Amino acid sequence: MSRSAALSLRSVQLLVGLFLYGAATALMVRAVVGVSSWTVLTQGLEHVVPWSFGTITTVSSGVILLAWIPLRQKPGIGTLVNTLTVGPASDLVLGVVRTPEGLLSRVGLFVGGLALLAVATACYIGARFGTGPRDGLMVGLHERFGWPLWVARTSVEVVVVVVGWLLGGDVGVGTVVAAVAIGPMVQPLMPLSARFPWSPERGGAGPGPDDVGPEARPAPAPLTPAAPVTSPHAGQPRPPSR
Question: Which pTM value belongs to this model?
Answer without folding.
Answer: 0.82
